[in-house]
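TASK: fixed-backbone design
INPUT:
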């Protein structure tokens, strides 16, 4: 498949590489290739020297404790305050007047916040949270739109040594409640709503619904509400407080205290292969070290001149590491935009780049492909000449989108860093360094200095160049997941059981003849839709919770824009009368969105009478995926019932 805009299936050209320009290389933060060797020879010394760039209230002496694998401790006898490293440190260095955040609301309202102002606001918020009873070791849930208060809330929680659990604002009441319960959060910080696609998207009512579920009785005692959209909401006396009413009563004096390096910083839930999301736990100093180092190196950040913009929402790991902690630890000036790229029209992102003179732009392939579809005539109306580095994250970037990104957004010259990492890795693990690497469209290329990534066979042995295998990480790294919140055993089983001494990422990969790494997608039952991770099992269990559904199978089918799309196959209960097969598709799409969140809404729901199963009763998702992609279904002789796939496949082809 190929047309003038290109499709996700485009292939790299033989030998297509883009070396850094001599000018870029000369000025790059990292332009001496010996860094790889130095870091490989003594990774701990390398990470210790990076950690020393942070401000410690008590310096560390021990670098890594790996005496009880897979539970790593980095810099554990040291102490620091994460929030002070992102704020007070810069103000003390005389950078208080530097802009930290250029905020652009979707309706067009703007706010410019300097480091001095952000520091004051976070101190005020920390005082407010203290008087609401938040202290070190607590968990605070944050369910917010992309507004400055979301960042302020995260930094205020961190400042007190408590852990935040940010829940993406698109998640349903059920999903929010499950996360609140798992973390036993006592405070929720939310907003009345946010602006999305030109409309108010309410948030507080979802918090109310979440807390009322299961007969109420949650761990939550207080709800703090930021006023953003002014929509009518209910405030429950004794529980709910307005952020603006409270915060004005506190002053902006707050002395940050140092906390142990391994103090929990946040929990972030992500989908796994079972129905229950995993609470990925990240701790303080190692995390902050690796996010700041990678942010500086991979994006070649020059904090006094660059204007950086990462389009991710703080509800995802990219927002945590490359909107909040990495950029702020580095004293960067950044843009935060509340809304969607097509509001009021598809020129919105490019107008923001032009307006603020954005120099470093970091987004996802799905967004680039959506912009490609609309056409280059839109970005061509804007002055994008400030751009000097482009980044990509979330899924492999297909070469055609890569070339378009470089040509149309990067004036044919900006380096593109394709960054591979995960919620669990906390920070970028594989990426080009723009002053050193000759870029290859479609490949994430090289492990970062000090990172021990391998592509291995089933026995855990490294494959030869030119071969494919599974992606693993051998040595512990500073920003690695410490455990799954409340479930050490699941942490071991999910990531370490397969190889014992290597972290198994769940991705397939290939190493080319130059040693560059090409990611090939997940090898487990995890889908990647628009760069977001979704679990087939979670959506299947949401479907069977519907009264009319007897059985469900979900697959991630290739999709031109979103990478993969959710396609569901359901069998309706034979005796049920509430749903006709005709009404089922719409109803079940709505049901999944309500149960999990709009991101999980299936692209298609097919009512079938049988699902393809092996003789031992396992659903053959591979076959369903092929059928959903209109592919030849091939050999079905291992199926219990060989006719079922023919029927499904014929139906699918009729639809496509
Ligand atoms: C999964 C992690 C890291 C933030 C965004 C997603 C896929 C991520 C790339 C890339 C190929 C990628 C992997 C990974 N992925 N970045 N540059 N090239 N694949 O975080 O939700 O934790 O998902 O996203 O499959 O395992 P996440």
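OUTPUT:
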């Amino acid at each position: 498949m190929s047309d003038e805009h290109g499709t996700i299936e485009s292939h790299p050209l033989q030998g297509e590489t883009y070396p850094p320009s001599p000018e870029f290389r000369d000025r790059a933060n990292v332009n001496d290739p010996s860094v790889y060797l130095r870091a490989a020879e003594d990774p701990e010394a390398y990470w210790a020297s990076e950690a020393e760039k942070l401000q410690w209230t008590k310096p560390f002496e021990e670098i890594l404790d790996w005496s009880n694998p897979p539970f790593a401790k980095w810099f554990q006898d040291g102490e620091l305050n994460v929030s002070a490293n992102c704020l007070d440190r810069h103000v003390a260095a005389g950078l208080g007047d530097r802009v930290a955040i250029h905020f652009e609301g979707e309706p067009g309202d703007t706010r410019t916040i300097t480091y001095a102002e952000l520091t004051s606001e976070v101190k005020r918020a920390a005082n407010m949270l203290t008087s609401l009873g938040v202290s070190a070791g607590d968990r605070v849930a944050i369910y917010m739109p992309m507004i400055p208060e979301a960042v302020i809330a995260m930094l205020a929680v961190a400042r007190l040594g408590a852990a935040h659990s940010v829940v993406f604002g698109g998640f349903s009441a059920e999903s929010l409640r499950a996360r609140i319960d798992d973390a036993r959060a006592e405070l929720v910080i939310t907003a009345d709503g946010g602006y999305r696609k030109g409309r108010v998207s309410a948030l507080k009512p979802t918090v109310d619904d979440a807390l009322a579920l299961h007969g109420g009785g949650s761990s939550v005692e207080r709800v703090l509400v930021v006023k953003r959209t002014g929509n009518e909401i209910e405030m429950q006396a004794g529980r709910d407080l307005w952020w603006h009413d409270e915060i004005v009563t506190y002053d902006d004096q707050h002395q940050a205290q140092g906390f142990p390096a391994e103090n929990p910083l946040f929990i972030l839930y992500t989908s796994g292969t079972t129905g229950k999301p995993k609470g990925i736990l990240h701790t303080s100093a190692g995390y902050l070290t690796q996010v700041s180092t990678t942010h500086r190196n991979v994006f070649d950040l020059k904090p006094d001149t660059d204007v950086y913009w990462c389009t991710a929402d703080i509800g995802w790991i990219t927002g945590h590491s490359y909107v909040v902690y990495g950029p702020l630890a580095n004293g960067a000036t950044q843009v935060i935009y509340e809304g969607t790229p097509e509001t009021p029209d598809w020129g919105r992102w490019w107008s923001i780049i032009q307006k603020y003179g954005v120099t470093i732009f970091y987004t996802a392939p799905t967004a680039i492909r959506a912009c490609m579809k609309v056409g280059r005539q839109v970005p061509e109306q804007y002055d994008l000449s400030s751009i000097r580095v482009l980044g990509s994250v979330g899924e492999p970037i297909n070469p055609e989108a890569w070339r378009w990104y470089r040509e149309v957004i990067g004036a044919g010259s900006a380096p593109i860093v394709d960054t591979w990492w995960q919620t669990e890795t906390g920070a970028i693990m594989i990426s080009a360094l723009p002053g050193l690497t000759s870029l290859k469209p479609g490949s994430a290329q090289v492990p970062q200095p000090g990172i021990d990534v391998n592509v291995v066979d089933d026995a855990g042995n490294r494959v030869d160049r030119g071969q494919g295998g599974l992606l693993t990480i051998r040595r512990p790294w500073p920003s690695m997941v410490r455990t799954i919140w409340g479930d050490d055993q699941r942490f071991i089983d999910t990531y370490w059981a397969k190889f014992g001494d290597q972290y198994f990422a769940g991705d397939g990969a290939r190493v080319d003849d130059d040693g560059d790494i090409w990611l090939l997608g997940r090898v487990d039952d995890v889908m990647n839709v628009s760069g977001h991770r979704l679990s087939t099992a979670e959506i299947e269990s949401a479907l069977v919770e519907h009264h009319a559904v007897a059985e469900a199978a979900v697959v991630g089918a290739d999709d031109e824009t979103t990478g993969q799309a959710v396609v569901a196959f359901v069998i309706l209960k034979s005796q049920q009368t509430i749903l006709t097969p005709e009404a089922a598709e719409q109803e079940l799409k709505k049901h999944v969105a309500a149960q999990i969140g709009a991101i999980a809404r299936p692209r298609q729901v097919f009512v079938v009478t049988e699902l393809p199963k092996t003789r031992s009763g396992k659903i053959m998702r591979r076959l369903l995926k092929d059928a959903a992609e209109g592919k030849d279904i091939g050999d079905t002789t291992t199926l219990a019932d060989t006719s079922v796939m023919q029927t499904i496949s014929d139906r699918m082809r009729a639809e496509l």
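COMMENT: The radius of gyration is 24 Å.
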